[in-house]
Amino acid sequence: MNSLVDQGNPRIALVTGANRGIGREIAYQLASKGLKVLIGSRDEDKGQHTVDEFRQEGLAVELQVVDVNDTESIKKMVEAVKQQYGRLDILVNNAGIILDHGVSVLNVEETVIKDTFETNYFGVLRMIQATVPLMKENRYGRIVNLSSGLGAFEVLTGLLGLKGSSSAYRTSKTMLNALTCLVAQEVADMGIKVNAVCPGRVQTDMGRATTSRQVDEGIPAPVTVAEGADTAVWLATLDEDGPNGGFFRERKPANW
Asked: Number of structural domains, the chain?
């Protein structure tokens, strides 16, 4: 069964934070596969710039202004999508921030932790809660959460030699992994699949800021943006027999 079309119509995919970085590449790859991609961006001008560039290549994209930290913004976005398309098939929760690069857990400010959780965890939760009802109506959905191996317990316990820096960012991704599991269980009988992905240390602004030792020593990010987006795109276009409730890297299961 072709998961990219339904009754002859392309699937509708929404990617948050799609105006730059890995989100932009995920949107590009999905649109290149023939999907109708909604470019989620809280900055209208930047989002429209991405839309204009993609359309020059003949890709089917539209702008959806949405701020994952604003419940009303999400509500308006979902209402607009429902009115225009009557459905949403794919959600890629890409929007995320890192504010405490290199800061010890003993020194990180509480406000930094709260701001990080607000976007990286609660923003994703808001998007899922708002869009699952629309997916449920059509008995189809693919939700992909952009996580990080830095939030995996094998890393947090020190097995890879990393200490307590960037704790707000890393803890937010641990929470996101837990959320992925819980939501996957809730929607398993609704035709919806929910998975998390670690893209690796990608050659983006955020990728350069997530591993302090490598950054400080001038070690370049090893993963291209296209490579980093690949697994997320794969999970976003899974067939019916694809996995649910997993954590993946390079299309292979990763340790939580």
From this structure: 1
